[in-house]
Design a protein that fits this description.
This protein has about 625 residues and is an alpha/beta fold. The chain is built from 21 helices and 24 strands. The chain has a six-stranded mixed β-sheet, with helices on both faces. A six-stranded mixed β-sheet has the order 15-19-20-13-21-22, sandwiched between helices. The radius of gyration is 29 Å and the shape is globular.
């Protein structure tokens, strides 16, 4: 039975409906990811589910007695108390009892009076009676894994820390349904991976919005997309969703093209001369009027973000050389004896927990900070552009238009002048939005605006500090393509594992106590290289493997491919390409109305699609295995 469902729900705010004829239901234990463009209405959908936003029509049906908790993108205007109090508040009356006990235990640590001890004992017995000790452990566990200081005051916390506390509050109460809007924002990779395990191991029922594709792949059991007011249930994993979405859009485009041809033909007929008007029949006229109404109600997709980098004159071959640099904040070492060289065209990712010093290292490498030890040398002709994590480069009181070129009407892009309004439309800001003050923009819109401002400049060194927060997945894909086409040098700070894998060629990893090591490849490559090697009995404790994978022992026998395996390896790329082409064609056919109406053809096609979905990964694995044998048998 569904815990909560929407039935023919409609919500509009004066423009096109945010939700139109929306139907949705979630069963216990499902983890549904809601996808959609920035501004599509995902947050509104969440508010409708928990009753914060009432629909204009339709019904929201909830199973009697279910509880819901929501992490919103927008933070409450007033929050007070310690982190422990804020998080425990999500547990209701028992949470307030926990808070009182926590405060009393802190008092006893400095006040050993009889009254303080009696109060602590009273609260101890009250917790026993309420069976709340397990909840106390749960609060402390969530605080620890999100790296929140229980005694820190939330009034003095940064926006990121406040959001983490609100996330912790939503998680600890473990309601029947949890609604999470961009839960990975401001979390480091360790915290994200802990949350993935927390959400998947407890059988929780979850509806979440995220741009983090690695999180999505790990957590979601089902994918629903909100597109132009319509909820489309894809009910599958993310990679299959992408393929089926492409097939659906292609089918929609073909259907619209055929509709437009029919409408154009009828418009020509209605405008012909006297003879045609004499023979005109009223049924055909009514049909044309219906076609016009249908065309006027069509909602086109908002275009994709379009951008290009403007490469400055090439830098020297060596960009940055760090020799045994060290830097500390008081007694805390940030970087200890780091030596690295960044060459022109390198794409370097920085990975580490929040607060470890990634931004500090960026400033050291760029020369904005002086190292306490060691030296840093810069190459020639460096033109640096910096994407700031905190968006301090945007004046909140300026308009979107004025933020691009400091009030000028034109910018130069690719050597050609462009009007700012036209340029802003490439980043999905229509002219009516161009006069909006920056303070009124959403997080995703601010990130897009900062990218638009950044790309008006020519540069050959690009520094991006957490650029992916709040961006929708389609914009992330565009940014990935843009960075992969960039010929200069890239320094990237990110907690988005899929983004790191797609963009960087090497990774600087903060491993604690000032140790920063360099690894070849992205995040997944680092995971493989950092594997812990178990020592023999009596040996020293396990250690991380060296960044460079050791070569095989010279005495190890190197196997070579047989003739049959060589023939198989040569044929595999064509077999995989043919299977992928057939699968793409199958997805397109599944969206064909003629196929859907024929149950026999539909069943056969579905079976073939399932076979291909299993065959292609098996062929890829076989290809990789044979290639591994070839590489290992090659002379060193």
């Amino acid at each position: 039975m569904s815990l909560v469902s929407l039935q023919d729900v409609r919500v509009a705010f004066g423009g096109p409906p945010v939700l139109q004829h929306a139907d949705f239901a979630i069963e216990r234990g499902e983890r549904v990811c809601l996808l959609g463009r920035n501004g599509a209405g995902k947050s509104t959908f969440m508010k409708v589910l928990d009753g914060t936003q009432l629909p204009d029509s339709g019904a929201v049906v909830k199973l009697g007695g279910i509880t819901m908790a929501r992490l919103d993108q927008e933070m409450p205007p007033v929050l007070t108390g310690s982190m422990f109090e804020v998080v425990a508040e999500g547990l209701g009356e028992r949470g307030r009892l926990l808070t009182a006990y926590h405060a009393a235990s802190l008092r006893v640590s400095v006040d050993h009076s009889e009254a303080a001890l009696r109060e602590l004992d009273r609260l101890h017995r009250a917790l026993d009676a309420a069976d709340a000790w397990q909840l106390h452990i749960r609060v402390e566990t969530v605080l620890e894994h999100l790296a929140l200081d229980p005694e820190a005051r939330i009034e003095h916390a940064s926006g990121g820390r406040t959001r983490q506390a609100l996330l912790a509050r939503a998680l600890v109460c473990e309601p029947d349904v949890i609604l999470l809007d961009e839960p990975t924002n401001h979390l480091d990779i360790d915290a994200i991976e802990w949350m993935e395990e927390y959400l998947t191991s407890r059988g929780l029922t979850l509806i979440f919005v995220t741009h983090d594709r690695a999180f999505l792949r790990r957590v979601a059991t089902r994918i629903v997309e909100l597109d132009r007011g319509r909820l489309v249930d894809f009910g599958t994993d993310y990679d299959t969703y992408l393929e089926r979405k492409d097939a659906m859009l292609a089918s929609e485009a073909k259907s619209w093209e055929e509709f437009d041809k029919r409408l154009a033909k009828e418009e020509v007929w209605i405008r012909t001369g006297i003879q045609a008007r004499r023979t005109r029949n009223e049924g055909r006229v009514r049909g044309l009027e219906a076609l016009r109404v249908e065309r006027s109600q069509r909602r086109e997709r908002v275009g994709t973000t379009r951008a290009q980098t403007q490469d400055a004159e090439r830098s020297g071959r060596m960009v940055i050389e760090a020799n045994a640099i060290s830097f500390s904040h008081g007694p805390k070492p940030i970087v200890s004896a780091l030596t690295t060289t960044i060459m022109r065209g390198d794409r370097v990712g920085l990975v580490g927990p929040n607060g470890c010093g990634k931004t500090t290292l960026i400033k050291l490498l760029l020369g904005d900070l002086e190292p306490h030890g060691g030296t840093i040398r810069h190459g020639t002709n460096l033109e640096v552009a910096y994407f700031d994590q905190r968006r301090e480069q945007l004046d909140p009181e300026r308009s979107v238009f004025d933020s691009i070129a400091d009030g000028a009407d034109f910018v130069t892009i690719g050597g050609q002048p462009r009007h700012v309004n036209g340029y802003l439309q490439d980043f999905l800001f229509p002219p009516e939005r161009a006069r909006t003050p920056v303070r009124a923009l959403s997080g995703g819109e601010r990130n897009r605006l900062l990218l638009a401002r950044l790309f008006t400049r020519a540069f050959n060194v690009l520094v991006l500090d957490e650029p992916t927060n709040d961006l929708d997945i389609e914009t992330l894909d565009v940014l990935e393509s843009l960075l992969n086409a960039f010929t200069g040098t890239l320094l990237l700070v990110s907690h988005d594992r899929a983004f790191l894998d797609a963009v960087v060629s090497s990774t600087l990893v903060f491993e604690g106590k000032g140790v920063v090591r360099e690894y070849v490849g992205g995040y997944t490559d680092w995971l493989r290289q950092r594997a812990v090697v178990a020592p023999p009995p009596g040996a020293a404790a396990p250690r991380r493997a060296d960044p460079v994978v050791a070569s095989a022992s010279p005495s190890a026998k190197k196997r070579k491919l047989s003739y049959k395996e060589q023939q198989e390896l040569a044929a595999l790329p064509d077999r995989i390409a043919a299977a992928e082409a057939e699968l793409a064609q199958g997805y397109g056919s599944l969206a064909d109305p003629a196929v859907i109406r024929d149950p026999v053809v539909l069943a056969t096609l579905r079976q073939r699609v399932v076979e291909l979905e299993a065959t292609i990964p098996a062929l890829m694995d076989r290809w990789e295995a044979l290639e591994t044998i070839v590489s290992e048998s090659a002379p060193s």
